[in-house]
Specification:
Structural class: mainly alpha
CATH topology of the largest domain: Fumarate Reductase Cytochrome B subunit
Number of domains: 4
Number of helices: 32
Largest sheet: 4 strands, parallel
CATH class of the largest domain: Mainly Alpha
Mean pLDDT: 92
Shape: globular
Distance between the termini: 64 Å
Low-confidence stretches: 632-644
């Protein structure tokens, strides 16, 4: 190791001044960013469940979970750099106290401990050089992997980090000439770093842990708007009620923090099904446009942050937000802007016809309510009896009014009867309001939801089961926000089916589903619905059911919580894109066809609609169970209830 360097007075004064200038410059540039954030109001409590928030920060910041999982190679390289950033804190402190004769390392460690520490840091330095070098090459010399626009400030930072590691390694060489010069290069790079990160995407080094800490607990966690205009005006006559993101002034502080935190990695855009279909919607683009619009409080949100056309292309699949490594909430931007369209400006909406149909008929298929009763009578579905029936079977619009979905509902009734499940339906059922909310029509959503909640209370419903992940998510996650006393236990039919099979209440025969024309057994794949896997983390249960039926799932390339949207979300199943050459469902259909599977299983009636006829046969999970079910040995159904 090198001997201690000696410093004259002017060197001590200079380094002290440089550190002071760096700190002042850093604070001067940081204050405007803090001001932008503080201009926003609060949209919700973001300090609740403190332990969970801290655990999330440890998982995603300390252990780099999302960074590595999202991109295995690039993520690992980033994690190597992060380890170096964390490990060199003590060494940096020691470096700047050295001119003043304060041996920080020796004060904390023995002489032998210092040697071990420096050797460990040497290994870390090499890893950082490999990591930052790999990221630099990927960013600037591999355009197919990392397309533009390039962030050249990030290139400067990468070079600085590489040189920092090299100068540290050189400082350990006792025979190196110009040790003092090496020391100064190392010090000058460090003092230049704080002001630079505030002027580049590396601001995320400071902001990402904070942004992740304040992120919502659930993906796409939407809160209801207060639509009692009279009460709002009485509370504050001078304050114009906020009806979504009409102008930048309506953006809450967390959203502003999101705009500033974006690391420009483009993972969100790469996952966006609309972007991959050649459409305009670009999640990274509208987050960066939001950053550029900060400070312009009167600027219209739609038009400056995101265009009307791009906004209309979102299916709210959640892929952008789910993969973001720094805690950005894209969905609150998208739905907030749609709320402004529907409730404030009345312009630019793409689902006006859908919303009008739901308003007129109570469903998106323009069918009278009498059609529901005909179906109920035909399938002999029992009516829920308060205090006697265990499960309320929620049909949803597609199972009720789409004739092609009748086979799925018929299978559901057959399976529940065969398993001896106590179930029934409501005499009448309003749309859950899921798609209305995703299109910004919060008033329609709240009206429909409150009608349903009133019926649940009237019939004293405690447990519900449905085959629709959209209704499942909305009733499970969003109805409780409207009524504090709402306590209905909601399960998806894949969960109930898995439990019934595990308890022996359903016996599957495990027989093959026939042969193909060339004589081989037909193969099967499963499409994970976005709102089942990505939003609700229900991934294993459908596969357990399929395995119980005697099949191995031939997995699609994008599966489980990395599934690819069918295009049915945000009312996409009920409306058509203006440009038929650009449709979200086509990409997923190509992937399914390319898998070589003969049978496609879904866990969502809307996905089945969108992906039907992609392969030889498409069916709901419960249809597979109905085909593979043997009646229980005893004619008397079991009395035990399946676990929820």
């Amino acid at each position: 190791m090198t001997d201690a360097l000696t410093f004259v007075t002017w060197e001590r004064v200079l380094i002290a001044l440089l550190v002071l200038v760096s700190a002042v410059w850093f604070v001067k540039d940081l204050l405007p960013k803090i001001h932008h954030i503080r201009q926003g109001g609060s949209d919700r409590d973001r300090t609740d469940r403190l332990g969970r928030r801290i655990a999330t920060v440890i998982k995603e910041v300390v252990f780099q979970y999302r960074v590595v999982r999202g991109r295995k190679v690039a993520g690992t390289l980033h994690a190597m750099v992060f380890v170096g950033f964390s490990a060199f804190g003590l060494e940096t402190l020691d470096h700047f106290f050295e001119p003043f004769g304060v041996p920080v390392l020796h004060a904390l460690l023995s002489d032998a401990g210092v040697v071990v520490f420096q050797n460990v840091l040497a290994v870390v330095a090499v890893l950082v050089m490999i990591g930052i070098g790999g990221l630099f090459i990927r960013r600037f010399f591999m355009p197919k992997i990392s397309p533009g626009p390039k962030s050249y400030s990030s290139g400067v930072v990468a070079i600085m980090i590489f040189i920092l590691m090299a100068t540290y390694l050189w400082s350990l060489d006792a025979g190196l000439a110009y040790q003092k010069a090496n020391w100064w290069v190392h010090a000058l790079l460090i003092v230049a770093f704080p002001p630079l990160i505030l002027r580049s995407k590396h601001f995320h080094i400071l902001m990402a842990p904070v942004d992740i800490f304040f992120r919502t607990h659930h993906l796409g966690d939407l809160l209801p708007l207060n639509l009692d205009m009279e009460a709002l005006m009485e509370a504050d006559p001078d304050e114009e009620p906020s009806l979504g993101l009409e102008t930048m002034a309506d953006a809450p502080w967390k959203m502003r923090m999101d705009f500033l935190t974006c690391v420009e990695c483009k993972r969100c855009t790469e996952q966006c099904p609309a972007w991959n279909a050649g459409m305009e919607l670009n999640p990274r683009g509208f987050i960066l446009d939001g950053r550029a619009t900060l400070g312009q409080e009167d600027a219209a949100f739609v038009g400056n942050v995101i265009t009307e056309k791009a906004l209309g292309q979102c299916t709210t699949c959640g892929a952008c937000e789910a993969i973001c490594p720094v805690g950005i909430e894209h969905l609150n931007v998208l739905v907030g802007a749609k709320r402004a369209q529907a409730l404030a400006t009345g312009k630019g909406m793409v689902a006006t016809e859908y919303l009008e149909t739901v308003e007129r008929y109570g469903n998106p298929f323009s069918k009278p309510q009498t059609e529901r009763q005909k179906l109920v009578d035909q399938l002999q579905i029992p009516v829920f009896e308060p205090g006697q029936t265990e499960y309320l079977l929620w049909l949803g619009c597609v199972w009720t009014y789409n004739q092609d979905a009748e086979s799925s509902l018929r299978s559901m009734v057959e399976v529940l009867d065969r398993a001896g499940v106590s179930y029934g339906i409501l005499p009448s059922e309003s749309c859950s309001g899921h798609h209305s909310r995703r299109q910004g029509e919060e008033l329609q959503f709240q009206t429909l939801a409150n009608e349903n909640i009133d019926r649940f209370e009237e019939f004293k419903v405690a447990k519900m089961v449905t085959g629709c992940p959209h209704c499942f998510h909305t009733i499970r996650r969003e109805y409780p926000d409207l009524r504090d006393d709402f306590e209905v236990e909601m399960v998806h039919h894949s969960e109930l089916l898995a439990n019934l099979i595990a308890d022996g209440r359903l016996k599957l025969n495990g027989e093959a589903m026939g042969k193909t024309a060339d004589g081989r057994d037909r193969t099967l794949t499963f499409h994970d619905p976005c709102y089942l896997s990505r939003y609700e983390k229900i991934e294993d249960e459908p596969r357990e059911v399929i395995r119980s039926a005697g099949f191995q799932v031939q997995e699609l390339a994008r599966n489980r919580d990395r599934t690819y949207c069918c295009g049915g979300g945000a009312a996409g199943f009920a409306r058509h894109a203006e440009d038929e050459s650009k449709r979200v469902d086509q990409e997923r259909k190509r992937e399914i066809k390319g898998s070589g599977a003969d049978i496609l299983i879904t866990g969502c009636p809307e996905c089945k609609m969108m992906l039907d006829a992609t392969v030889e046969e498409t069916m709901d999970l419960v249809e597979l169970v109905a085909r593979s079910t043997k009646p229980a040995p005893s004619a008397t159904p079991p009395t035990a209830n399946p676990p929820s």
